[in-house]
Amino acid sequence: MTALQLNPDFAIANEQSLRALFEPTHALAIVKCQNSLGEHAQEFIRRSPFFCIGTQSSEGKADVSPRGDPPGFVKVLDERTLAIPDRPGNNRLDTLSNIIANPNVGLLFLVPGFDDTLRVNGRASLTNDPQLLTSMSVADRLPKLAIIVKVSEVFMHCAKAFRRSHLWSPDHFQDRTEMPSLMKIILDETTGAPKDGDEMRKMDEDLEQAYRKTLY
């Protein structure tokens, strides 16, 4: 694949040039931004089983991490505070270490079947307060810590992206078997996947067993 060489004459390098390409912001898009969680935002979060959290390191390196659990796993402590359990993952700790270095975070909440989303921005911190963690236990397993988000901005996001992508439409679902397994993708791009099909299937089965044992 040949790399595309962009013409620097068409670079958009400042906000004035950027905004000149678009119509003025709709007034409703400005006033909808709130600094606390209203009743509808709180209900949206209680219904959401999935969100993504965006963080940055102290050097400005960006990261986005998916988080999922049964609906209501993100606790609304009050109209300005959220608590998020940190479930077992790959122990890279990208999100958590970024929060320590730079507490500014962005959250995007999804509800299956809803085309609109909820965006929440704020400042995050980490805690292992036993009382809070106990309230977040699943099958008697406590998270090691929780992310606390002090909310600064809240607003609903329109449905255009989901309408364009048909994300929830079963007739647009793709066949997962048309791509290799997660394990094979990682091995292909690193140390190399085994040539023996049975060995590869065993590695895929081991990963599925690990999922079942380490969800919580």
Automatic annotation (TrEMBL):
Q: Which domain of life is it from?
A: Bacteria
Under the heading SUPFAM superfamilies, the entry gives: FMN-binding split barrel (SSF50475)
Tell me which residues make up the Pyridoxamine 5'-phosphate oxidase N-terminal domain: 38-155
Stored InterPro entries: Pyridox_Oxase_FMN-dep (IPR024029), Pyridox_Oxase_N (IPR011576), Split_barrel_FMN-bd (IPR012349)
What's a Pfam family in this record? Answer: PNPOx_N
Protein name from the UniProt record:
Pyridoxamine 5'-phosphate oxidase family protein
Q: Which organism is it from?
A: Rhizobium brockwellii
Q: What is the lineage of its organism?
A: Bacteria, Pseudomonadati, Pseudomonadota, Alphaproteobacteria, Hyphomicrobiales
